[in-house]
Amino acid sequence: MLLSVENLSVAIGPVEPLSGLSLALDRGEILGLVGESGSGKSLTALAVTGLLPLIGGRVSSGSVSFDGVDLCRLPEADLRGYRGRRIAFVTQNPMTALDPIQRIGDQVDVVARLHLGLGKAAARARTVDLLASLRIPEAAAICDAFPHQLSGGMKQRIVIAMALAGDPDLIIADEPTTALDVTVQAQIIHLLGQLARDRGLGLLLITHDMGVVAQVCDKVAVLYAGRLAETREVGQLFAAPAHPYTRALIGCIPREGMAPGSLSGIPGAVPSVATYPGGCRFHPRCPRAAEPCRAAPPPFAARPGGGMLACHFPLEPADA
Fold first, then answer.
1. Which of 4, 40, 57, 248 could form a disulfide with 226 if both were Cys (CB 3.0 to 4.6 A apart)?
2. Half-sphere exposure of 9 (CA within 13 A, CB side)
């Protein structure tokens, strides 16, 4: 297994915004980590990449195993050998991910020079090849451009090129289509999926968009208020969601031919970490909630037919 996260909990000061997270991802697989804003998706990415200290956080329990090595036990100096080289991070907003005063080529070159030990000329040649492989026209000329001279979609392709420049085994893409128009979003998602398949990479795709998950992912992990609600193969999950929150997210996907005003939403909002309710954290918004849901959190356990689920009163296929 390329990436195995076991019972991971994260603490920031006195609060624990992420609790008991378990995920698994192998080479050539695409795992979608989905949930509303505030669910803990980006925090998961920071935990996997060892960047929690940047926000004053720490792993309070559990492990993050990458290719058999527990990253949580490595000192920072050793972690730097993984970040950028074997684990790449595509950040959330391409508009702010690039240095505005450095040329594009220099920003991509530095990854190969730092992690692969290439010289200046060899790194530039690799950069041009990468940009061309990402269908960026006039790749050599783009290397001399500044970020403000490029469109949002082009900037996102540059950020992806930076992620690929170290020849990684795992890419973590955190909301990679933020601030892009719908047409460009589709292009970027298709590109990431194709890269994972063609290069045999593991791809952890973080998103709030269940439509994106349906397009490209092999497996799905549904996260709510710092706890996993459900993990399953993508086809099974969309055919028969077992958690009420999963069904609610799927119900928010617009469909062709829908009657005006028929698109559903989820009442309420994800609670802040300071106001997490007791029991199942989704129970204040759940139409199936009962006393057991308020009394104790449901165990995250294997379910018949595959996958894992945390729900006292799961949906049956007929309900979904």
1. 40
2. 9
pLDDT, tens digit, 9 for 90 and up, residues 15-38 = 999 999 999 999 999 999 999 999
Q: Which two tokens stand for residue 180?
A: 């892009």
pLDDT tens digits, 154-208: 998 999 999 999 999 999 999 888 767 788 888 888 889 998 999 999 999 999 8
- Exposure b/e, 182-203, CB count within 10 A at least 16 = b: eebbeebbebbbebbeeeebbb
For residues 44 and 226, give the distance between their C-alpha atoms in angstroms, rounded to a whole number.
Answer: 9
Given phi > 0 = left and psi -120 to 50 = alpha, else beta, which region is 298? beta
pTM: 0.94
Q: Could you give the CA distance from residue 240 to residue 266 in angstroms, rounded to a whole number?
A: 18
| Contact between 59 and 17 (Cβ < 8 Å) | no
Structurally, what CATH architecture does the domain formed by 3-96+169-252+264-309 represent? 3-Layer(aba) Sandwich (3.40)
CB-hemisphere CA count at 13 Å for 24? 8
Task: Show me where the domains of the chain are located.
Answer: 3-96+169-252+264-309
Specify the long-range contacts of residues 302-307, CB closer than 8 Å, at least 24 apart.
303/242, 305/236, 306/232, 306/233, 306/236, 307/230, 307/231, 307/232, 307/233, 307/236, 307/237, 307/242
The single residue listed with the structure tokens 């915004």 is 17
C-alpha to C-alpha distance for 147 and 34, rounded to whole angstroms: 29
Distance CA 177, CA 184 (A): 8
